């Protein structure tokens, strides 16, 4: 695909499958159209770790005596490990508005319990402090990095 077309596609992606001295196995970064409180389907892989979906919302209890209580703002990423080995993964997501203003950044992943081969996992990436304008996002950049 020509670079000019790729840069304007809904998912513009850069991948680096080389291993470096930092212990990182593979990396992918994608710019994707943003939607608040809606599941956004994704379809890319990093060394057979398939990134399936992401959504952005406020954690809120919907029933019981704590109904309406909010517990922060998050992006939740769902992945499937299609490789033959367990995977440790890290994520970073940054949300921007239509004028390229940065609205918020969240990170997350695992270090202790790897995503086992053939399993699906969900990761909550937490936005702290700067959260009030996230609903006005136009696009986001999601980076995925596999580590040893």
Topology readout:
Blueprint: H1 3-7, E1 12-16, E2 24-33, E3 40-46, E4 49-60, E5 70-81, E6 88-96, E7 102-109, E8 120-127, E9 139-147
Antiparallel strand pairs: 1-2, 2-9, 3-4, 4-5, 5-8, 6-7, 6-9, 7-8
Question: What does this molecule look like?
Answer:
With 148 residues, this protein is mainly beta. It has one domain: Apoptosis, Tumor Necrosis Factor Receptor Associated Protein 2, Chain A (Sandwich), CATH 2.60.210. It is built from one helix and nine strands, in the order αβββββββββ. A nine-stranded antiparallel beta sheet has the order 1-2-9-6-7-8-5-4-3, with no helix packed on it. Strand 3 and strand 4 form a beta hairpin. The longest helix has 5 residues. The N terminus is likely disordered.
Structural class: mainly beta
In terms of per-residue confidence, which ranges show pLDDT below 50 for 5 or more consecutive residues? 1-11, 13-21
CATH architecture: Sandwich
Please identify the top-level CATH class: Mainly Beta
Shape estimate: globular
Average pLDDT rating: 84
| Share of residues in strands | over 45%
Number of structurally distinct domains: 1
The share of residues in helices is under 10%
Order of helices and strands: HEEEEEEEEE
| Main pleated-sheet profile | 9 strands, antiparallel
Q: Compute the gyration radius: what is it?
A: 16 Å
| Count of alpha and pi helical runs | 1
- CATH topology assignment: Apoptosis, Tumor Necrosis Factor Receptor Associated Protein 2, Chain A
Number of β-strand runs? 9
Strand order of the largest sheet: 1-2-9-6-7-8-5-4-3
Question: How many angstroms does the end-to-end distance come to?
Answer: 31 Å
């Amino acid at each position: 695909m020509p670079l000019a077309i790729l840069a304007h596609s809904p998912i513009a992606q850069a991948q680096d499958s080389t291993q470096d001295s930092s212990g990182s196995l593979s990396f992918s970064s994608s710019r994707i159209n943003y939607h608040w409180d809606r599941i956004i389907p994704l379809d890319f892989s990093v060394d057979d770790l398939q990134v399936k979906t992401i959504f952005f919302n406020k954690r809120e209890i919907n029933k019981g005596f704590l109904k309406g209580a909010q517990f922060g703002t998050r992006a939740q990423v769902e992945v499937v490990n299609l490789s033959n080995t367990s995977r440790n993964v890290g994520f970073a997501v940054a949300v921007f508005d239509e004028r390229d203003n940065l609205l918020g950044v969240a990170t997350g992943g695992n270090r202790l319990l790897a995503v086992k081969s053939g399993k699906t996992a969900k990761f909550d990436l937490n936005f702290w402090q700067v959260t009030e304008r996230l609903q006005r996002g136009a696009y986001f950049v999601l980076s995925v990095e596999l580590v040893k």
